[in-house]
Hints:
By secondary structure, this protein is mainly beta. It is built from 2 helices and 12 strands, in the order E-E-E-E-E-E-E-E-H-E-E-E-E-H. It has helices at 110-113, 176-183, and strands at residues 3-5, 10-12, 17-26, 37-44, 56-57, 69-71, 85-90, 100-107, 120-129, 135-140, 150-159, 162-172.
Amino acid sequence: xxxxxQKGQREAIDAPKFTIGLGWDTNTSSTGAAFDLxxxxxxxxxxxxxxxxxxxxxxxxxxxxxxxxxxxxDNLTGAGDGDDEQIKIDxxxxxxxxxxxxxxxxxxxxxxxxxxxxxxxNSFIRIADAGTGADxxxxxxxxxxxxxTAVEFGRIYxxxxxxxxxxxxxxxxxxxxxxxxxxx
Length: 184
């Protein structure tokens, strides 16, 4: 049974290989434009900055250079139940400079399409054991992000040689470039 987390809660990840599943449903857009939410991964060192540009994993760079982080591809619609996008993590391959993995979801062309996370519901991040497929933990975003166009769902970080997950749930009015500016 998965541990259900609240915002700010932290929990150890005892599986060296796991899958991050991200899911959401969108309300019918009043603008008539389809929603395209994108998961991005920022792989950072102790300085809270990308280890190198190639350690930014997203729909145009699906794998980190060390092979530890792999995005399974962009879901353009978010239709259907379950995970809308997945990221596979293998901590046994992680570059020694890495101490944090930040998971962000942005709305593609949110400003042009007049879309925000207030129009998104049932958002969650879950971590499942890669071997068994069983959920280890899950965090459901329950806040109404009515002006935010990007949300940091959670982060995986290393403390005392152990990996932990923190349920962040922090929204930002901005997009992928704003996170790149923050973490680069």
